Amino acid sequence: MENASTSAAASAPARAGAAARARASGSTAARVGRSRFGRAEVLLPAVAFLLLAPLYAALSVTGHYQGRTSGFDLGIFVQQISSYADGRAPTSDLLGTGWNTLGDHFSPITVLLAPLYAVAPAPDTLLVAQAVLFAVGVVPLTRWAHRTLGVVPAVVVAVGYGLSWGLQSALNFDFHEIAFAVPLLAFAMSALGQGHWRSAALWTLPLVWVKEDMGLTVVVIGALIAVWTGGRDRLIGVLTAAWGVLWTVLAVAVIVPALSPDDAYGQGSKLPPLSEGIADTTHGLVSGDPRAATILLLLAITGFAALRSPLTLVAVPTVAWRFLSDNTNFWKPIFHYNAVLMPILFAALIDALVRGRTRRELSPRAERIVLSAVAAVTLIALPFQPLARLASADGWRMDPRIDTVRDVSADIPRDARVAASNDLVPHLVATHPTTVFPQRPSDSTTPEWILVDEANPPGWPQNAEGDRKAVSEALADGYRVVDDVNGILVLRR
After folding, report:
1. How far apart are CA 259 and CA 99, in angstroms?
2. What pLDDT digit, counting tens, does each position of 431-462 carry?
């Protein structure tokens, strides 16, 4: 008995030690697990960014040297940001002689690129900056998806967002101020979806300086914060919404008209009376005009799962003003108009999947179906998207016309004023005072040089016939032909 007791007493410390070691081992395993999870949470978004940024930059820059960029809009932003870099008010002679660009759109946030442009004064700088900003958006979205859903959903989100048609269309069409809205919205929506109200508000507030219409998006985000929270956090939502209203009114009713040559908000002319716009939009959606196709494509990229999340409401202002407009270009799934919707919709996708798990509204099988649909839509569409160009040798070749324009540009004195076809402007605007040819009524300058793309007329501001008429008038007005090579006609006064 005594031996048994002694044995039991002797074994007690051993059991305690074993338990302690087990606890230590479990704690160590937990720390290792958290460490591995933490590393993956950082590694996956970082890899996605490092893959997407150069891919985006390659698409934009190669497109630039293939003549795919234009004076409207890349040339305008080069002149605007060049003005900032020189310490001047933002002007663009492409819009009109001495035109303050803040009298066209309220986009003061582009001043942030002035230091970069001062170091590297070329259109390429803006295109690469836009590529990097778009790629930044993948970081918060992928990290949120990884933290809440796991590795596979995070990879699907990274691929779906990174290869989304909305971003590719924007990268395929010049530089625009919405390059700043994409990462801001990605961070804001990720914070909003995770209930980080203050972070969501802080990421949202600068959107009002991206473009005047973004104030309405700020209002919706603020309203969602106010509805979903209480106490001080509700006040944050109310103040955020008020901030959006304030800057929208200031931009549209005060700042833009004050800086516009005609003392008005010119973009407002593209919006018909509200009742007329609603009726036309309804008819267009039912009859299947480009608005219907755009809605279908926007919903398809998330396997229609975004409709299960209230975060989709943040997309409503952007879709609404575009569809209500009588400018049919706003309706289409091309150009840059859909880029700001990509982070919103993929945030809504993540939120819908998280809600489906926590509320048990989506079975694991249903979740797999959604993720499969997102991946399938992305990969099936890829061969028809701009990035597919990079898969062939032709996608990396410079257009001989652009090489010709660069050679001609080198022979023109830097202070000599030039007018050029819209697709040639981006290759002259960083080195010469440049306007578009044929000249628009708002342009009162007299160019010393004129470069006309006769081989591939851009069709704006005039069609090919209008270009020929303008050339004839220039020749009659004292210009002479200096060169005609690779379809580029060069005139000098």
Report:
1. 8
2. 999 999 999 999 999 999 999 999 999 999 99
**Closest of 488, 479, 402, 482 to residue 448, by C-alpha:** 479
Strand 434-436, strand 418-420: pairing: parallel
Which CB contacts under 8 angstroms, 24+ apart, belong to 79-86? 79/429, 79/434, 80/110, 81/110, 81/111, 81/113, 81/114, 81/117, 81/126, 82/117, 82/121, 82/430, 84/110, 84/111, 84/113, 84/114, 84/117, 85/114, 85/115, 85/117, 85/118, 85/121
Pairing outcome for strands 449-453 and 480-485: unpaired
pTM reported for the whole predicted model = 0.90
Confidence at 36, pLDDT banded by 50, 70, 90: low
Query: What are the helix (H) ranges across 120-213?
Result: 123-136, 138-149, 151-162, 165-171, 178-193, 197-204
Amino acid at site 348: A
Note the pLDDT tens digit of each residue in 466-486. 999 999 999 999 999 999 999
Q: Which residues pair with 453 in a beta bridge?
A: 488
